[in-house]
Fold:
Amino acid sequence: MAVNGFEVFDGDGHVLENDDEIASYFEGDFANLQRFKTFGVWPSLDGWARGFIMSSNDGEARRYTHTDAKVWGEMLDIIGANGTVLYPTAGLAAGLISDPRWAVATIVAYNNWLEDRYTSKDERLFGAGIVPVQDPEAAAKEIERCATERVRFPAMMLPSQTYLGKTYGDEFYWPIFEAAEKHNMPLAIHGGPSRGMGFDHFKEFVKVHTLEHPFPLMIQLTDIVFSGVWDAFPKLKIAFLEGGATWVPFMMDRMDYEYDSVFGAESRKKLKKRPSDYLREGENFWVAMELGEANLKYTIDAIGPDRILYASDYPHEPTEEDLTHELPDFLASSEFSDEIKRKLVHDNMISFYNMN
Structure:
């Protein structure tokens, strides 16, 4: 399968969870519990009625309101992609589960469900397991399980926000990074929830949605870089998903500015490289682009074309019409060379997810 002569692999698609199904995959003390169906398995992302916001009744092109392996197989045919790595939707709120035992049990159940209902059904479907960051030791075990026992789990997702009051530079999370590096398991930080980001006062969701994906990525990246995570774990690959890619040059300049300032004295002693070099060099930093980003060329100038990922994000915002026009139009454009386009829509995903 090819689009305009280019092989395509989707680096970030999504499932729409089925709570009744997931409930049947809980294990141990959490198996077969009676459940009030008025409450969902997952906490709310942030209080916005996203299901109704995302489902339009104004004649917009058809979109799915549920997914399963068959539906996603059809989606791949629509996109023209050879495969996809599937991330959660409601499960983007996994970091907001307050009880660590419940968080581990829920996330393991989700990963069980994702394997049974998707990745084991179609060899084109790959899963990004969720990491139960509330319990780093249990998280390390789940990373090992996904790396060694589950079918087609080439990456693990870190929620972009947690209730824990600490971000991913904190050594609390380092058992997770140690396990990921040991098992050659890429990690992906995926935006989603907006609560507590400083714009809870907004009354229009479009304002929230503009900011809720890139802001937490910037926060997590800043903490990861200045805390020396990639010095401690030099083989650790982390992707920053669904915030676009054009914020990257800004953050490179901003972190370097602070590193060189009077406030960066301790960082200059501690870090092995300038902040921007962690993004520019090696294979630590990866980022997903949006096809409509007019300034993508500046990100390519800043970090090169080898670690920028294509993401369909289906079935979230894009409609079928979007997918059948935007990708072919991008590949038909003369803005980038064929070599760069091959990397952006196929080769980089194969490299990041260790599929070669």
Q: What stands out?
A: Residues 10-352 form a domain with the TIM Barrel fold (CATH 3.20.20.140). The beta strands are 10-14, 84-87, 125-130, 155-159, 187-190, 238-241, 285-288, 308-309. The chain has a mean pLDDT of 93.
